[in-house]
């Protein structure tokens, strides 16, 4: 049941996430590099847009609230949010972010194609 609920939450966040134009602007602003470790799209690494201020904390789907991260750093960001939520006593948010980190980690960090 928990996995089903988490899937629905992730699906709703995907629908509410950055649109194609915003993702393109974030990608361009970052120079096709992870904004933490500098891994490059051109070197074959898969990069994702991440909300700096989570939507659940009042963050917006705006280019200014997005950052381009490799899969490893994206997962680490969600792990850090989960740890922070546990300390704050927000276990529901901690579970969501922990689950997101596991899903992100399960992806192949090397992109295919192009």
How does this structure look, described?
The chain has 114 residues and is mainly alpha-helical. The protein is 51% helix and 9% strand. The chain has four helices and two strands, in the order ααββαα. A two-stranded antiparallel sheet has the order 1-2. The termini are far apart. Mean pLDDT is 83; it is low at 4-14.
Instruction: Report the β-strand fraction as a percent range.
Output: 5-15%
CA-based gyration radius: 14 Å
Shape: globular
Write down the secondary-structure element order. Answer: HHEEHH
Distance between the termini: 38 Å
Biggest β-sheet: count, sense, barrel? 2 strands, antiparallel
- Which class best fits the helix and strand makeup? mainly alpha
Widest sheet: strand order? 1-2
Number of strands: 2
Low-confidence stretches: 4-14
Compute the average pLDDT.
Answer: 83
Share of residues in helices: 40-55%
Number of helices: 4
Provide a compact summary of the structure.
The chain has helices at 2-16, 20-29, 71-88, 91-105, and strands at 47-51, 66-70. The protein is mainly α. The model is unreliable at 4-14 (pLDDT under 50).
What layout of secondary structure does this protein have?
Layout: H1 2-16, H2 20-29, E1 47-51, E2 66-70, H3 71-88, H4 91-105
Antiparallel strand pairs: 1-2
Helix pairs in contact: 3-4
Task: Kindly list the characteristics that best describe this protein.
two-stranded antiparallel sheet, 2 strands, 9% strand, 114 residues
């Amino acid at each position: 049941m928990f996995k089903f609920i988490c899937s629905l939450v992730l699906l709703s966040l995907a629908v509410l996430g950055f649109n194609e134009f915003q993702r393109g602007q974030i990608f361009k602003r970052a120079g096709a590099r992870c904004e933490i470790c500098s891994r490059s799209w051109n070197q074959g690494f898969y990069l994702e847009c991440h909300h700096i201020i989570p939507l659940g904390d009042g963050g917006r789907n705006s280019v200014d609230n997005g950052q381009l991260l490799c899969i490893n750093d994206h997962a680490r960001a969600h792990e850090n949010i989960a740890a922070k939520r546990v300390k704050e006593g927000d276990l529901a948010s901690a579970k969501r972010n922990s689950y997101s980190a596991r899903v992100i980690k399960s992806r192949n960090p090397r992109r295919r194609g192009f």
